[in-house]
């Protein structure tokens, strides 16, 4: 080795290069402009399952909407240039970012270096992100809804058949928006001379058994007269649009703001009120849709002033009610809520009997048949004023008559009452039916939350209100139970779970019809009716699921040609198939109970329901909801042929329709034995044909698809082999 070379002198260390500070993002979202904002929001919400978030409004008009799905955020904005003309390149798409740094400071440094900004930093028009509805289907941490409390004073004049009333509306704005006006529902204008309902000639709603709901007043001309609408002593400007009226506020109502409105009104009572209220002479009154009430303002649509024209029912805010009703002195009243002046309204004997009923599972006669008959024959001068209160409800209704019989019993602290005329003999069993119904639904889907549940016999073919239902007298016992349990089922959907009936009747009528079958199966257990009643859904499918006539469930009720199928029967069949063929009874019931629990006294949207079921079950069900809710897809599972390969039998299966479902296969062997095998929905992942490989030394001589016949298969002839 030679000598070590001399070491070079060390270079002086350089100062570390100053790296530009990177943008530290908290969030990033894409922004798109669209030609039709309302339709785009509906598409992202109903088809892709996005949840609407913050809204951007200008002069009361929707200009933009945040949409969220999981970690994905987008913003949709209205394109003022519907054809895209005059729009600069790039303005249709933007990225909105929220940074960890002070954006104004960053912008200042940019300008200090001689660069220019296209625009100065600003907050997005949506403000901070809000998580109103979670991806799991539960209400989010920022969930909000409005609150409305009512104090109503009303008088029934039987000589003029008129109800006159006044009310104080206490409205609390829990939304993040400032409101310049209110929308108020005035449903009695359904019967006004210029009613859109009379002009439309809507088809009535027909049910099996002959029940018919005519959505008009059958020619009756009435309508509500608003005598005053004031706030702070100032008359408010109103504009009526049929069954809705827009009320201009004296000053904008900010978030967390409160306003009290003073309203006076009167209307003539229709004998037949669109199938939901009415009267029989001066002897029986069943009253609903009777007072001006606020339209829902929510995080999805803002105001919801869809007109009431009959087929679509109601979407209402929750609150407390304090109601007084001045009626002829001889009348007995059944109403939403609790009677606050029982000493003045009931006799000592009635109060004593009611005390016994509160601890009895068997019906106690509060007013007997003989007493009702005798009472109805008497004339009582003057009036009496009933005072009822109700907490955490979305509506109040009432019935009154001098002729009522009255039975009562109790379950789990809930007073269960039936009011009926002496001639309504089938109703002597009604209290037992009601008792079983409230018990069954409470134990299966969640506890009934109010102190009483009352059903009234009368002219209405079937209608539901909080704590109160209207049900006719029906001779056939099974039909009587069905209508009674159906109307009480509405206490869960939509009285507890406050869905939007005006848009999505399948979320209340359909869900309710599904749980009604379980109630009927329980009450009539062991009978031919109880053991087979649910199969009528398949018969309805054969009649109503007709190509070219059937419409998707997602269509509005006023657009449905066959509302009985779309709102009641198909969604009940959908949930039956989901329970029996996809999730299993235990998982399905756990998921539906959780949906009820999460959305108790709240306003769910379809996506909230879909996501809750997926969240609780752990199953991706997009394929299921797409076929059942958003399309009219039909099921046709088939056996094409059989083959063999050694000891393996090959069963060639096909899905010939548009709907996909799991498949159950029954194998028949040469020795007479049978065996069932189930195949999951993933069998159709690669297409509409599937080969089932059955490894068995026994000879397969026949196969049947859907052997129990639980599916609405449109061609059952191809479900077996050999044909």
Give an overview of the whole structure:
The chain is an alpha+beta fold. It folds into 5 domains: 25-112, 2,3-Dihydroxybiphenyl 1,2-Dioxygenase, domain 1 (Roll); 145-304, Immunoglobulin-like; 339-382 and 400-492, Zincin-like (2-Layer Sandwich), CATH 3.30.2010; 532-629, Neutral Protease, domain 2 (Orthogonal Bundle), CATH 1.10.390.10; 637-721, Immunoglobulin-like. Helix content is 23%, strand content 32%. An 8-stranded mixed β-sheet has the order 12-11-15-7-6-22-26-24. It has a 6-stranded mixed β-sheet with strand order 25-28-29-30-32-31, sandwiched between helices. The relative contact order is 0.08.
Mind sketching the topology for me?
Layout: E1 25-34, H1 37-46, E2 51-58, E3 61-69, E4 72-78, E5 93-99, H2 103-112, E6 147-157, E7 162-172, E8 179-185, H3 196-200, E9 205-206, E10 212-213, E11 225-231, E12 234-235, E13 238-241, E14 244-253, E15 258-268, E16 272-273, E17 277-280, E18 284-287, E19 293-294, E20 297-298, E21 302-303, E22 319-328, E23 332-335, E24 338-339, H4 342-345, H5 348-357, E25 364-367, H6 369-377, E26 383-393, E27 398-401, E28 405-411, E29 414-420, H7 430-445, E30 452-457, E31 463-465, E32 468-471, H8 477-489, H9 491-496, H10 509-523, H11 528-532, H12 536-544, H13 563-583, H14 585-598, H15 606-617, H16 622-629, E33 637-645, E34 648-655, E35 663-669, E36 674-679, E37 689-695, E38 700-705, E39 720-721
Parallel strand pairs: 1-4, 6-22, 29-30, 30-32
Antiparallel strand pairs: 1-5, 2-3, 3-4, 6-7, 7-15, 8-14, 8-19, 9-10, 11-12, 11-15, 13-14, 16-17, 17-18, 18-27, 20-21, 22-26, 23-27, 24-26, 25-28, 28-29, 31-32, 33-34, 34-37, 35-36, 35-38, 38-39
Helix pairs in contact: 7-8, 7-10, 8-10, 10-13, 12-13, 13-14, 14-15
